[in-house]
Amino acid sequence: xxxxxGKTPLTLQQAASEETVSHLPYQPLDKxxxxxxxxxxxxxxxxxWVALGLRDLWAYRELLYFLIWRDVKVRYKQTALGILWVVxxxxxxxxxxxxxxxxxxxxxxxxxxxPLFVYAGLLSWTFFSAAVTSSGNSLVGSAHLIxxxxxxxxxxxxxxxxxxxxxxxxxxxNLIVLMIYYGVGVTKAIFILPLLILLVxxxxxxxxxxxxxxxxxxxxxxxxxxxxMQLWMFASPVIxxxxxxxxxxxxxxxxxxxxxxxxxFRSALFGQEINWDALSISTGFTxxxxxxxxxxxxxxEKNFADIV
Amino acid sequence: MSSIxxxxxxxxxxxxxxxxxxxxxxxxxxxxxxxxxxxxxxxxKHADTTIWALKDVSFEIKTGxxxxxxxxxxxxxxxxLKVLSRITEPTTGRIExxxxxxxxxxxxxxxxxELTGRENIYLNGAILGMKRTEIERKFDEIxxxxxxxxxxxxxxxHYSSGMYMRLAFAVAAHLEPExxxxxxxxxxxxxxxxxxxxxxxxxxxxxxxxxxxxxHQMGAIAQLCNKALLLNQGAIVKEGDTQRVIDYYxxxxxxxxxxxxxxxxxxxxxxxxTSAQALDSEGNKKSYFSHKEPIVIAISCKxxxxxxxxxxxxxxxxxRGRKVFTTNNPDWCKLGQNNxxxxxxxxxxxxxxxxxxxVFTFAVTVPNVGVVDLVExxxxxxxxxxxxxxxxxxxxxxxxxxxxxxxxS
Lengths: 308, 409
Known about the structure:
The complex is a heterodimer of chains A (308) and B (409). Chain A has 14 helices and 1 strand. Chain A has helices at 12-17, 54-59, 61-75, 84-104, 114-136, 138-141, 143-146, 155-181, 193-217, 220-234, 250-255, 257-270, 276-301, 304-307, and one strand at 41-43. The longest helix of chain A has 27 residues, at 155-181. With 409 residues, chain B is an alpha/beta fold. Chain B has 2 domains: 3-9 and 57-253, Rossmann fold, CATH 3.40.50; 257-393, Coagulation Factor XIII, Chain A, domain 1, CATH 2.70.50.60. In chain B, α4 packs across α6 (161-173) and α5 (132-146) packs across α6 (161-173). Chain B is globular, with a radius of gyration of 26 Å. Classes of the chains: A mainly alpha (308), B alpha/beta (409).
């Protein structure tokens, strides 16, 4: 590198060209830039079978954090009760369901007080459905980012799920209060709870990534999703126990990946027997879906900026 | 110095046309299959409705270079920036980047109106690829640059657009990548702030970082860049020294009208400019003049319906895009009459414009109301140095006019 220091007297011609910045000699970098033989980034059209780009994802983990933080912060700005809504929303639903289903329709609840039973179900269901819906619409809603700046696109549906997980955490605190109120003690089955939360998060991520990518191209997905989620709620043990499903249909019911998760959630909390059949189906389904979604997402990703 | 950006045979194809609009719906897809089952089977989608936004573009940029990309609308400038900043993928070809890239295709990407200035600095910084520790380190510098410290905890939705832009640019200006890719972001804010941004970018360049810059402002390109690429219809037409590429572009842009400017009939306009020519003192049409001869600009206008408050004039730009002067015809108001063709001349005195290339913009306006007719950047002329005091600095920038100052000693 050629570094000139000190001022030498300028000729008239140099003095004239001094005006144009473009003719100035450039100062070296503060710390010299070391260029390795290998390029840092290679931009090429992707091949049909693409890598997941997990390293890139890791490098952008702070962005994931900031997007989650933004989602949570923005959602409760300009609301008088703020984050309290996270707790109030399922509580009010619980109250309504307790009156209509628990008291009037006398839906059984496997020996657990119905409010507690339904709150536990709603808690995980609300997380699941809200996270699927918001991550499904997340890419379309972030068009302004996608067309202007690069970062691994998976962060967008990921952040949508993450933000709902924060809500879930807050609403979970309320569950603890309810359990103390009803005097329900925990057993050692509680240790499986973190795994169940991980499982439902991964399932959500799998569905969220796939639907969000499809939604970029086919906006129908965004319309169908809420209807589908409503249907799914009635097909899952949210407001009723899976024990009311007749024994001979139980295996069909278990094919719903949410059956194992929601049942498992209650079993872990209330110390009941865990439905291992359903839970293994859930786990297998979740892993397969997650892998498929991740690759499908990467394949569709390259067109996002052009069609979103 | 070694190359920090290597672009090899880069091409980008876009699908356009009615059937392949911005996004499809499932129903379209199904009905499309029903309508053209064969095409669907072959997996072909209207091969004729594609365009190449970039075609076989190859170039290299060395560390520390500041490269301007110029070209008309649809030349592929923005597509090139989008591919360089990994927003969209090339169809074929390859780019090797030997450094971290930050792209500024817009300032304030991801700003959320509900969040405060402070919160948006963090969010925007993260989106642009800054680490949280890096943002924390530069935080005070950013707010000082934006001159907004008292509004730091106000949601940005309450900001004026100028404040918003200042904050947005302040974050962007503190990025420290090895390669900075910038698209037209300088066309924001008030003039003083624009100059501050230009200064900041010049500083970035002086620190040896590589900058790729797209702008319509030839002045900014000429001031900042030491190399330029001219794109036309997705291909590189010319590359090299900024001034030479800009000269070439200015010539190209106006080449269709180099023999003067003529317009067809425009019955919809009250008054319009029918032709403009550059003549020497004997009345010969020319596009090259010596700096020692006067230039006669002859303009013809058709008045369909006279507007008593109108004015007619023109301005001149140099090859750096700077406006040199504006002049209005003082006797225009005496011409008023419906359905009349008028011819006027304006003489630019000798030894006024310094050697270089110039283009003219002619306009008929009603002050404070609007533009009646506008003919932009036409009638390119070149003034050749016939032995002026500046001939020693060939190609240097010594201003636009001979001031003919009265020096005494």
